[in-house]
Design goal:
single chain, alpha/beta, six-stranded mixed beta sheet, five-stranded mixed beta sheet
């Protein structure tokens, strides 16, 4: 039985596009803002640092642009010291989407970093399958980083996936099997993409509610939107485009029975979407459906997840990685 209540926040925010240092400063500032509201769990959008590579949807493939993007990507833990310190200072658990650069290397991944309230990095999840044009940018993650984590003294297990990774039912079930209580689904704005204006938010809502109900978890769905820093960077560096518009995004906190705890929120300015996650309500939900119990039917269904190490640096990013003392 879980009796804990968690004040949680899914952020609807835009990064400082293609500027790692400035975006990380914004992360620290948002953590301090969350502390003012006594938030205990703070979730950032997909690849908040340095922003989503919308250029893959607007221009012909260009390795030089990917190299620029890689240069602004995050090395773990080296680039996150100030973020870790802010988590420790304010006692907040943070789930942060970043484009992660292999430490000492060049390959990059769409990653989710989970940082404990004492500043320790609990681990990094690398998106298993980059979607469509994303394959020009990111490598494929492995089952080695498909994990949930239990923050110190928090009383819950948390895990996350990025964007259309939620269409991979095996990935979701792997988190369910690890006893997940809270899920973070990290997204960029998709409804501003040419051809997705009328369907993207419906797709996100459907996927997030599906995991809420089938996993019996609370879902935090943080999302970015497209701001001037993104549009101006692309036009200045790559030329005019008409495939990506300003605004967009879909941000919410969802109950396991698919009602909204907070949101959904869609707009073109920053907002902290805040709600109370009452974990004691899982008792009633799981009386109906228990994905790791009576609804699993292990004699009928078997899931085999390959958790073999695939990338040389994977052991370095599976925590805990403590905050370095100055």
């Amino acid at each position: 039985m879980l009796n804990k209540k968690v004040k949680a926040c899914a952020l609807h925010v835009a990064p400082v596009y293609m500027d790692k240092a400035a975006s990380l400063r914004k992360v620290v500032n948002l953590i301090s803002q969350a502390a003012v509201e006594s938030i205990e769990l703070l979730a950032f959008p997909e690849v908040f640092v340095p922003g989503f590579p919308y250029f893959t949807n607007c221009y012909a493939p260009n390795a030089a642009t990917v190299a620029l993007y890689a240069a602004q990507s995050v090395e773990v833990p080296d680039d996150l010291t100030e973020v870790q310190a802010a988590c420790a200072t304010y006692g907040i658990v943070v789930v942060l989407g970043v484009s992660e650069r292999m430490r000492g290397g060049h390959t990059i991944f769409n990653s989710i970093v989970t940082i404990d309230s004492d500043g320790a990095i609990l681990g990094v999840h690398r998106k298993l399958q980059p979607t469509w044009a994303e394959r020009l940018v990111w490598g494929q993650g492995s089952g080695y980083t498909l994990k949930t984590y239990e923050p110190k003294g928090a009383g819950y297990r948390i895990g996350g996936l990025a964007c259309w990774e939620h269409t991979m039912n095996g990935a979701r079930q792997a988190l369910i099997d690890q006893g997940q209580h809270i899920h973070v689904g990290c997204w960029p704005a998709l409804d501003i993409l040419d051809g997705f204006e009328n369907v993207a938010c419906m797709q996100i809502e459907a996927l997030m509610k599906t995991h809420a109900l089938t996993a019996q978890v609370f879902v935090l769905c943080p999302s970015s939107y497209v701001d001037a820093t993104c549009l101006e960077w692309m036009e200045k560096n790559l030329g005019p485009q008409d495939k990506v518009k300003p605004g967009g995004g879909w941000t919410a906190i969802i109950h396991p029975f698919c009602t909204f705890v907070a949101g959904p929120y869609m707009s073109d300015f920053d907002l902290l979407v805040v709600g109370e996650v009452d974990l004691s309500q899982l008792d009633l939900v799981k009386a109906y459906v228990d994905g790791v119990g009576h609804y699993k039917r292990p004699e009928v269904f078997k899931l085999d997840v390959d958790t073999t190490q695939r990338w040389k640096d994977e052991p370095d990013i599976v925590g805990p990685i403590p905050l370095k003392k100055p």
